[in-house]
Amino acid sequence: MDTPIIDNVRITSKGQVTIPKHIRDKLNLSAGDTISLAFEDGRLTIENPLAAAMRTFQKAMEGEAEKAGFHSEEELMYWITEMRRNGEI
């Protein structure tokens, strides 16, 4: 895990903040990009929306492979390969 970056920013009268450049660089953000904000347990997080979407998807899919009868990642990958080979996906 990366070392936490702690920085103080000022909130303007319009409620705007400037994300420091070194943090924008870490998040791979440019002018005009969209970010995801999440507030949970008294903590505000800022994320690249693609990363937030992937985490949400992974959480939603947790346990679904086991429910479908797959017991290992190898079994699932084999099934996907066979489905692609047969043109089914």
Compute the gyration radius: what is it?
Answer: 20 Å
- Series of secondary-structure elements, N-terminal to C-terminal: HEEHHH
Bin the strand percentage.
5-15%
Residues in helix, %: 40-55%
Termini separation = 36 Å
Number of strands: 2
Q: Which structural class do you get from the secondary structure elements? A: alpha+beta
Regions with pLDDT < 50 over 5+ consecutive residues?
none
Biggest sheet: strands, sense, closure?
A: 2 strands, antiparallel
Morphology: elongated
Number of H/I helices = 4
Q: What is the average per-residue confidence, as pLDDT, rounded to a whole number?
A: 90
Arrangement of strands in the largest sheet:
1-2
The structural domain count equals 1
Fold topology:
Elements: H1 21-27, E1 36-40, E2 43-47, H2 49-61, H3 64-67, H4 73-85
Account of the protein in words:
The chain is α+β, with helices and mostly antiparallel strands and 89 residues long. The chain has one domain. Helices cover 42% and strands 11% of the residues. It contains 4 helices and 2 strands, in the order αββααα. The protein has a two-stranded antiparallel ribbon with strand order 1-2. A hairpin with a 2-residue loop joins β1 (36-40) and β2. The longest helix has 13 residues, at 49-61. It starts with 20 loop residues before the first helix and ends with a helix.
Give a nutshell description of this structure.
By secondary structure, the protein is an alpha+beta fold. It is built from four helices and two strands. The chain has one domain.
